[in-house]
Amino acid sequence: MSLPRTIRRVVLIGFMGAGKSTIGTMLAQSLGWDFLDVDNVIESRTGMTVTQIFAQQGEAAFRALEVEAIREHTFRESLVLALGGGAIESEATREHLAGLNRTCVLFLDAPLDVLVARCLAQPAAAERPVLADREGLMRRFQARLPYYRDAHLTIETAGLTPQAVVSRALESIGKGCAFEAAREGVPIR
Ligand code: S3P
């Protein structure tokens, strides 16, 4: 993927524990943009948690909801959007992301052991369906890596504070392209 000259949205990708929600919230705040987490969009829409959807309807049903939610929300402007870790496995989603204008896809990278440790440190660790499947974790991680690496930009997050990751994100996006405000009153960086 080649970075657009101006961007109006940032899409964060990466495995569970990459920090997509934390970094996304802070990045959006720095830009004066909105932040959305696709998992939260799905939960609000269905009135169920991601864990409940996996348990009651199966992973395939969750993936279908995920593809739909991503399609609907990637047209918003002045937006930082965090995708779920497995969203990128969908070919439809990959093609959709590649076809978006004025969008920077940013991969938050870290080694698998760091990611797992971060997830386990979170209170809701036991509820993560994909984390519970320890044997499948490495397989999923390896299968997704080539797709994550296809992002416009990658930031290695291990050992960095969230603030440092946000600073790097602003710097590396800003080097390649300009942030473009879609609304009046939003400062153009
Ligand atoms: C998943 C990651 C989760 C969530 C679901 C499946 C995955 O999102 O979408 O539990 O397949 O890796 P986060 O990456 O935001 O934790």
General description of the model:
The protein has 189 residues and is an alpha/beta fold. Helices cover 50% and strands 15% of the residues. It has nine helices and seven strands. It has helices at residues 20-31, 38-46, 50-57, 59-73, 91-98, 112-120, 129-132, 134-148, 162-176; strands spanning 6-7, 9-13, 34-37, 79-82, 103-109, 153-156, 178-179. The strands form two sheets. Strands 3-4-2-5-6 form a five-stranded parallel β-sheet. A two-stranded parallel ribbon has the order 1-7. Helix 2 (38-46) crosses helix 4 (59-73) and helix 3 packs across helix 4 (59-73). Mean pLDDT is 92; it is low at 184-189. Bound molecules: shikimate-3-phosphate (S3P). The site of shikimate-3-phosphate (S3P) has 10 residues, from helix 7.
Topology diagram in text:
Layout: E1 6-7, E2 9-13, H1 20-31, E3 34-37, H2 38-46, H3 50-57, H4 59-73, E4 79-82, H5 91-98, E5 103-109, H6 112-120, H7 129-132, H8 134-148, E6 153-156, H9 162-176, E7 178-179
Helix pairs in contact: 1-9, 2-4, 3-4
Shikimate-3-phosphate binds next to α7.
